[in-house]
Design goal:
By secondary structure, the protein is α+β, with helices and mostly antiparallel strands. The chain is built from 19 helices and twelve strands. The strands form five sheets. It has a four-stranded antiparallel β-sheet with strand order 5-6-3-7. The protein has a two-stranded antiparallel sheet with strand order 1-2. A two-stranded parallel ribbon has the order 4-12. A hairpin with a 4-residue loop joins strand 8 and strand 9. Helix 1 packs antiparallel against helix 6.
Length: 522
């Protein structure tokens, strides 16, 4: 979209917001507070979208990444936040506490609007939309929208100065960086904004602060390298690396994590008051140099991630994809006048409670298996091609969503991992033996399951490169991971270090070979 078109779109958003607000006022007087609330929320969203379009003008001119702006335009809560945030910035009264409050308020407005739109059913009984929003709540939101629109002047096209372009370019890039964004919205930064009362001066101050921090960091790096040359280690904690891990298959309890933390001081699993996430903290003493921290922490991160996934036979990773099951905001049956939740593979979407009940508890037995697996796994995954294949499968699991379908890649990575484990284990000598070994293992470990023939069919198609009659589903790809986990837990892990001598090659090289001359199935 060209800049002139963006300006026209911004003006259209403003005009539409005014129309929505006029309609909200009329509907409120007719006694339908919930509908009036919805229209006022839409008016705020249009102003938020107008603000995003204004940002997009600059991003377009500077050829910046615009994906985050595009995502925000499609998200109701983010459009509301953009509107409310710009309102506070206009009043020069922004604080970190207010920013957090605005985030919560944006979500609250959206949730309340939904409650006033659709008939709901809960443990407390039937929820009637007209009963969910009071007249006062509708009036308050209409007043807020009126205030926000009144603060917008005439939208005109203006050529920014070189300094403005430079500052806005730098700011747009900086807010995409988590560390910089945290400081930009910190109390110190917000106080400086109020003190300068000028956005340009404030951005110049921010740029100088980040440059000062970078210079200080470089100085500390030089100082740390010199320390290791001159001083003996004191054996005290020196480095802490924190990574948030998510799970889609388990629920987390603090007491269980404490069991793990008693037996491992270097790798700590920290409860963060969430059922689906925890913090992984890696702590090194001062005998680890600054130049070794990244490499050694990455090895431990990879090792604990593999151990968690294998021990729990679930899914843990440091990022979870958006739009995991559907790409749309809502899907309506016009005949029934009802909202439906439908995904491609599963048809009817299970409700939140049912999905939650399907998750397994990460319990003390899981901790015991985690401890065994963590001690069994090698430190350097790169030297172990099947484990490297397993890690690649986890990465694709984390990336998989409705926009990036990767069932075949996930399946093949875990199939390669299982094949590689069997090769090192010397259960097979090559691909000709794999099908029978897989079949025997399946009958022994999963006698009550009935998908063996389907998996053997897929394995044959991989070898012959024949097209499958039906595509591989996400569940089948995930089950291939489970079979890989089961093989490790039941057969392989007890002999892992004894078998290290059979390993040749490097998992980062394209040509991956094991004790035989056979490559992993491609």
């Amino acid at each position: 979209m060209e800049i002139d078109d963006l300006l026209l779109a911004s003006r259209a958003c403003l005009n539409h917001a005014k129309s929505l607000l006029d309609s909200a006022t009329v509907v409120k007087h007719s006694g339908h507070s919930n509908i009036a609330y919805h229209l006022a929320a839409l008016a705020l969203e249009e102003i938020g979208r107008m603000e995003l379009l204004n940002i997009k003008q600059m991003a377009h001119k500077q050829n910046l990444e615009k994906d985050w702006i595009w995502d925000a335009e499609k998200n109701h809560v983010k459009k509301l936040l953009s509107c409310l945030f710009s309102l506070e910035m206009l009043s020069n009264d922004m604080t970190p506490e207010k920013f957090k409050f605005l985030q919560g308020l944006s979500l609250e407005i959206h949730q309340k609007r939904l409650a006033g739109l659709y008939v709901g059913q809960s443990e407390d009984g039937l929820k009637i939309p007209s009963e969910q929003i009071t007249t006062e709540e509708a009036e308050n939101l209409i007043s807020l929208a009126n205030l926000r629109i009144s603060m917008i002047g005439e939208l005109t096209k203006r050529t920014p100065t070189p300094e403005e372009i430079d500052n806005q370019t730098w700011f747009l890039r900086s807010v995409e960086n988590t560390e910089k964004k945290n400081f930009i919205f910190s109390k110190i930064s917000m106080d400086k904004l109020k003190e300068t009362a000028n956005a340009g001066d404030w951005v110049n101050w921010l740029k100088a602060e980040f440059q000062k921090r970078e210079d200080e960091s470089n100085g500390l790096l030089k100082q740390e390298r010199q320390r290791l040359k001159n001083d003996l280690p004191k054996g005290i904690p020196k480095w802490k690396i924190r990574i948030k891990l998510y799970t889609t298959t388990h629920t987390i309890k603090p007491s269980v994590l404490r069991e793990w933390n008693k037996i491992n001081q270097t790798v700590q699993l920290i409860y963060i008051n969430r059922k689906d996430a925890l913090n992984l903290e890696i702590i090194f003493n001062d005998d680890v140099s600054v130049d070794e921290v990244y490499r050694r922490s990455f090895f431990l991160y990879s090792k604990i991630l593999l151990a968690l996934n294998i021990a729990s036979m679930g899914f843990w990773f440091s990022e979870i994809p958006p739009h995991a099951e559907r790409f749309y905001d809502d899907l309506e049956d016009l005949e029934l006048k009802a909202k439906l939740l439908i995904s491609e593979d599963k048809g009817e979407k299970k409700n939140g409670d049912e999905e939650e009940n399907r998750k397994r508890v990460f319990d003390k037995k899981s901790i015991a298996l985690l401890s065994e697996n963590f001690s069994s796994l090698p430190d350097d995954i790169i030297k172990w091609p099947p484990l490297h294949e397993y890690m690649k499968g986890l990465v694709l699991l984390a990336k998989h969503n409705v926009h990036f379908k990767s069932e075949i890649g996930i399946f093949s990575n875990f199939l390669n991992a299982l094949y590689g484990l069997m090769l090192i284990d010397e259960s097979i000598k090559g691909p000709d033996d794999f099908e029978k070994e897989f079949s025997d293992f399946y009958d022994k470990i999963f006698p009550d399951l009935d998908e063996k023939e389907r998996f053997l069919q897929i394995i044959r198609s991989f070898r012959s490169q024949e097209e499958l009659k039906s595509k591989i589903t996400y569940d089948e790809a995930f089950h291939m991971k489970l079979y890989c986990d089961a093989y490790f837990l039941n057969v392989y892990k007890t002999k892992i270090f004894e078998l290290a001598k059979n390993i040749k090659g490097d998992a980062l090289k394209q040509d991956i070979r094991f004790s035989s001359d056979n490559e992993i199935i491609n």
